[in-house]
User: Fold this.
Amino acid sequence: MAAKWLELLKQIAPRVTRVAVVRAATISSAIGFLGALQTAAPSLGVEWIPIAVRDAGAVERDVTAFVRGPNDGMIVLPSASAGAPLRDLTIGLAARHGPPAVYPVRRYVTRGGLISYGPDNTVEPYRLAAHYVDRILKGEKPADLPVQGCLNCREGRRSSSECSPARPKTRWIGHDCRAWPR
Assistant:
């Protein structure tokens, strides 16, 4: 997902050469995102600088210090600005200092952010998991439950990274097929 955020940032702002990656200092899940960015950045000609979020003062200081010119951009990792105050501060700093910013979920955009790429509803997977657990506890065999995911129709294999409305040869299979074209 992080490599996709970087690609998206380069698409909307091709001159970006430096990217601040805003992440939570205390949450270790960012390691996977940072690894993906480290792999993707050289091929896109981008230098990325992690900014660890501890509190509002640190975010403001670090983002302000990072932004130098028109070739700067920002990627905000999930949980980097947990809670509305830090989320709004992060969006405001990007708007004030001007770097294009990519956010992990749509609620950043509805609050004034530029663009997001990620799940629209982060609660839905948990609801679906509860449904599966309920069915298993009622006696169904896990192997008999329907599989959900993205089917790459061209190659006949499942891959969540390849499923998108922009790819007409892929479609979403499973519980909610409304999100993807058939």
Notes: The helical segments are 2-12, 30-44, 56-66, 84-97, 106-110, 124-137. The chain is about 40% helix and 20% strand. Strands lie at 18-24, 47-53, 72-76, 101-103, 115-116, 149-152, 157-158, 170-173.
